[in-house]
Design goal:
This protein is mainly alpha-helical and 157 residues long. Helices cover 81% and strands 0% of the residues. It has 8 helices and no strands. The chain has helices at residues 2-41, 46-49, 54-67, 69-74, 81-95, 99-125, 127-136, 145-155. The protein starts with a helix and ends with a helix.
């Protein structure tokens, strides 16, 4: 009886995290392979070559998120309602089949997951990795310097 209860606790504890990770890998691995193939082999449009800093930006974002994992686990689970809205928006972007929206669905999805799991404190903790992922996502949407300054100012809050 004791072993069965421990198995249930472990199953509940890790199922959510592993399920989310598996779903993200299944959905976004082809997209990331396409990005890296385009950046490395120069078979992506010229506009997207400007985003080739993602070659180092995405692994660095993953490294920062990994080093923040202990702080992440200490945060209380306090979902924010905007998180579910962003998850729905990212799903719609992904299903739209428009390249810019599909590309932007990854940072929107990751932001929605942060807000859904840990709320605003989790978003602040993962702000820098999320910003790196957003800036590495190839798209044709112009980002004026004012927007980048506002994002940088928001990170210092």
């Amino acid at each position: 009886m004791h072993i069965q209860r421990r198995i249930q606790i472990i199953f509940k504890r890790y199922l959510l995290a592993e399920g989310i990770t598996l779903l993200l890998v299944l959905l976004y691995a082809p997209l990331l392979v396409h990005w890296y193939d385009g950046w490395l082999n120069k078979n992506i449009s010229i506009e997207h070559e400007y985003f080739s800093h993602g070659l180092i930006g995405l692994p660095y974002a993953a490294y920062i998120a990994w080093t923040n994992r202990k702080s992440w686990l200490r945060l209380p689970n306090s979902p924010h309602p905007l998180g579910s809205c962003l998850l729905v928006l990212a799903t719609l972007f992904y299903l739209s089949r428009l390249s810019d929206l599909v590309n932007l669905s990854l940072p929107v999805m990751l932001t929605g997951i942060c807000l859904s799991l840990k709320g605003i404190p989790g978003l602040k903790l993962q702000a820098m990795p999320l910003l790196f992922v957003f800036l590495a996502s190839p798209n044709h949407i112009p980002l004026p310097h004012r927007t980048l300054r506002l994002a940088a100012a928001a990170l210092h809050c």
